[in-house]
Q: What sequence folds into this?
């Protein structure tokens, strides 16, 4: 067996070119970019909260300013690490520092708000900080922001601030130690009661690190701790979400916040690859023969993983399974990406830095894969996952360090980094995750079914290929099988799509798909036209390889921007077509009612009338006002809906009284909104049970359909609530729903506290439908089934015993039939459904050609 000696990398002595300096300094600038991305990400959501919320708007605008400012501090620190030319460095510091000074006054206001607005001195001091900010702005505008006198550190060059900047560098630290620290100490108990501890510690650490930068601004060579700003920024980000400043589920899933953040970062990576290939690869890069055929497997793996991540995430951006799968695929692509430069004739420092950068996100692959597997089998994340998360975080923080790789081997197929302690940690963590998954699932074989097996198999195959990559990194001349990651990536993408994550159909979605395909064709044609131009510099094979690495990132970027970024908006727009029609109809009806009520009502009775209408249906209230009483009425066809929480007593025993009431109120408030949208009347709540009915006090022909639509919405809401509680490891309630249609007698009982109620055997039967159902299911009687069977997918359960009722035919309603649904889950009706609904509502008889399945 031939011997391949270990070769070591060392930094050159003396001056280097600006380009080489950039590559040598990348690890020092990377944390600043992370700080910038986190700051911009949080500032976006803070600004959204400012627009949506009418309360504490000043707090949210200062929060957004603080995040933006800290983000630009990170960007400034990155440029100080990467730019060697002092004049150019001072120029960019002057420009970018325009966004930095506002962090001081905004941060002082945040502390003033966190302490309950009890220290007016903090508020006044924020005004003083604004004065120093305006002084900085004036200095920057006249071109006297920073001086060319710089303090040189191994991690960058720090320019000395001018007389316009120095007051800010003095006032902010003094205010922190003399005002903020005492305020935090004095109001510590109040802050801990209202905010998550990580937010408190993150804010303090941010101030300390910013204060440690002040000496370098003043011209003193003291270690600037701002280099580590990304650590408290991550703490603040975690504390912000845990302190409920933002609705985490709404921002990250319903509004696809994490989806946009991930693919925004991916867009940046794709553009960087394309530009890097265009400007960074010369004909000499292909002098080595390693690019063919050894370079083809990693290139295919990178672009296959990224393309599949786009398809999977775009199929359903709000689905947790899809997002986790997309994360896993992107991390896989990032890992294989570092193998491509190793096949080319590039300086080793470039190859090393690319590998270090991609290992930062790839370090989290074990954590993401474990979550993906357990999500696929519908089980809670195990408690032991925190150990893997911690090891992932440690590996990610150490990835840019010299301990990731300690030299390299020169094999016939390419260079291969010699793994250091950090790579061994990543490999150990991946093996630990693999053993953890196999052990956990071996104990519960019954839950591994269908597409879940493919997902687990892809993870096992991917982990095996990655473990085999450890051999060449430690001196064994064995080709790294990890270059063939496109195989498990294809299996994983197929498995998740097969799991049920299919695309929604709609007019705007189809338009976005066509635009994306048009972009693919356009870029492909441009690449073909570009091919003859590069043949003068490269051979045919090198030209094709070069063109593939240049054009494929642009194609994927186009597909991502046009198809993925517009897809969530397209879905919302398609659903909005239906919702707008309903809202318009309801708005017209409400307008007519308001005009009638305004003509008939007297000014002195307005408040009492509003109160009466809030208790009783409109028609009943009008009768009560005119006659002083309500005549009981019999309705021959009324649909009654009952809900009841399963396990309510068990979960409630572990909750505080106030928390219990708040949870019930939140659920019932959502139920109220749902039944109002579906033309039903709320009758009453009894403990944790909820009762409503359709077809009264105004009779209609659609009350059974209305009740089933409302039940589907309630079911969807409870499923979303369950997902959130499960992700937060909190107890949750499961709901049974029962529906029955039949005759009732309705009337008003009570003399001083009115209540509209119904009586009859129909009510008892509906209650039996609820008690005889199953958690998370909609259980209906044969009478209701006969009225809705043509619109909904149902399942006959057989005859089920009902207390005091004997054997009753019962059915499950699962969803709208695909023919009448505009989404794959069968929740939102389409235009065909609305047309038929309108005809039934007007009293038309529909003659069905076929019996339901």
A:
């Amino acid at each position: 067996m031939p011997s391949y000696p270990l070769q070591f990398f060392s930094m050159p002595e003396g001056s280097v070119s600006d380009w080489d300096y950039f590559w040598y300094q990348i690890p020092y600038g990377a944390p600043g970019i992370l700080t910038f991305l986190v700051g911009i990400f949080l500032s976006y959501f803070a600004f959204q909260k400012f627009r949506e919320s009418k309360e504490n708007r000043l707090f949210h605008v200062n929060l957004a300013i603080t995040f933006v400012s800290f983000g630009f501090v990170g960007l400034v620190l990155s440029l100080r690490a990467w730019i060697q030319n002092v004049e150019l460095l001072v120029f960019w510091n002057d420009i970018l520092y325009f966004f930095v000074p506002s962090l001081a006054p905004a941060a002082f206001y945040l502390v003033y708000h966190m302490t309950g607005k009890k220290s007016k001195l903090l508020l006044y001091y924020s005004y003083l900080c604004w004065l120093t900010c305006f002084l900085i702005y004036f200095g920057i505008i006249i071109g006297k922001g920073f001086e060319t006198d710089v303090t040189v550190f191994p991690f960058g060059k720090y320019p000395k601030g001018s007389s316009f900047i120095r007051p800010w560098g003095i006032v902010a630290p003094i205010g922190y130690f003399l005002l903020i620290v005492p305020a935090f100490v004095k109001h510590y108990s109040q802050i801990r009661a209202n905010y998550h501890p990580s937010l408190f510690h993150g804010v303090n650490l941010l101030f300390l690190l910013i204060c440690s930068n002040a000496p370098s601004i003043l011209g003193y060579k003291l270690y600037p701790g701002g280099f580590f700003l990304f650590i408290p920024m991550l703490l603040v980000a975690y504390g912000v979400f845990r302190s409920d400043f933002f609705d985490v589920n709404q921002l990250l899933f319903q509004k696809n916040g994490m989806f946009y953040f991930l693919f925004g970062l991916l867009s940046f990576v794709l553009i960087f690859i394309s530009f890097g290939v265009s400007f960074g690869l010369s004909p000499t890069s292909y002098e080595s023969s390693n690019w063919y055929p050894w370079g083809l497997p990693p290139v295919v793996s990178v672009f296959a993983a990224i393309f599949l991540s786009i398809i999977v995430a775009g199929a359903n951006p709000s689905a947790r399974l899809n997002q986790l799968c997309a994360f896993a695929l992107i991390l896989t692509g990032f890992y294989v990406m570092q193998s491509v430069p190793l096949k080319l004739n590039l300086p080793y420092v470039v190859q090393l830095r690319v590998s270090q950068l991609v290992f930062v996100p790839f370090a989290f692959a074990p954590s993401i894969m474990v979550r993906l597997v357990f999500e696929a089998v519908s089980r809670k994340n195990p408690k032991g996952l925190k150990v893997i998360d911690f090891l992932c975080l440690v590996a990610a923080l150490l990835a840019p360090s010299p301990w990731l790789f300690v030299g390299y081997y020169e094999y016939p197929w390419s260079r291969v980094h010699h793994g250091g302690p950090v790579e061994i940690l990543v490999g150990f963590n991946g093996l630990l995750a693999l053993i953890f998954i196999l052990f956990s699932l071996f104990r519960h074989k019954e839950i591994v079914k269908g597409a879940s097996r493919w997902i687990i198999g892809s993870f096992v195959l991917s982990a095996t290929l990655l473990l085999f990559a450890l051999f060449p990194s430690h001196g064994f001349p064995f080709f790294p099988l990890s270059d063939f990651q496109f195989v498990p990536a294809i299996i994983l993408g197929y498995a998740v799509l097969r799991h049920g994550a299919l695309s929604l159909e709609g007019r705007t979605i189809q338009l976005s798909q066509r635009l994306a395909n048009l972009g693919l064709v356009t870029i492909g044609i441009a690449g073909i036209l570009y091919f003859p131009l590069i043949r003068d510099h490269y051979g045919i094979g090198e030209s094709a390889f070069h063109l593939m690495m240049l054009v494929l990132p642009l194609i994927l970027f186009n597909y991502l921007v046009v198809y993925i970024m517009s897809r969530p908006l397209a879905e919302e727009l398609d659903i909005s077509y239906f919702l707008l029609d309903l809202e318009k109809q309801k708005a017209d009806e409400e307008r007519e009612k308001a005009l009638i009520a305004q003509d008939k009502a007297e000014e002195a009775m307005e408040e009492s009338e509003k109160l009466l209408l809030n208790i009783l249906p409109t028609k009943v209230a009008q009768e009560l006002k005119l006659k002083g009483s309500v005549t009981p009425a019999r309705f021959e066809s009324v649909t009654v809906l009952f809900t009841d929480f399963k396990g309510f007593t068990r979960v409630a025993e572990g909750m505080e009284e106030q928390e219990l009431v708040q949870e019930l109120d939140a659920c019932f408030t959502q139920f109220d909104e749902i039944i109002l949208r579906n033309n039903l009347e709320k009758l009453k709540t009894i403990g944790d049970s909820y009762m409503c009915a359709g077809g009264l006090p105004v009779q209609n022909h659609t009350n059974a359909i209305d009740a089933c639509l409302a039940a589907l919405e309630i079911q969807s809401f409870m499923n979303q609530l369950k997902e959130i509680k499960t992700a937060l490891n909190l107890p949750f309630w499961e709901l049974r729903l029962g529906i029955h249609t039949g005759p009732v007698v309705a009337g008003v009982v009570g003399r001083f506290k009115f209540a509209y109620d119904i009586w009859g055997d129909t009510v008892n039967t509906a209650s039996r439908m609820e008690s005889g159902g199953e958690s998370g299911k909609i259980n209906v009687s044969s009478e209701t089934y006969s009225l809705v069977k043509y619109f909904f997918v149902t399942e006959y359960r057989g005859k089920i015993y009902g207390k005091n009722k004997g054997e009753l035919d019962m059915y499950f309603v699962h969803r709208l039939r695909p023919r009448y649904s505009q989404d794959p889950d069968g929740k939102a009706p389409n235009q065909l459904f609305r047309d038929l609904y309108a005809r039934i509502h007007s009293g038309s008889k529909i003659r069905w050609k076929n019996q339901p399945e």
Notes: The two ends are 68 Å apart (CA to CA). The first helix runs from residue 18 to 52. The chain is about 60% helix and 10% strand.
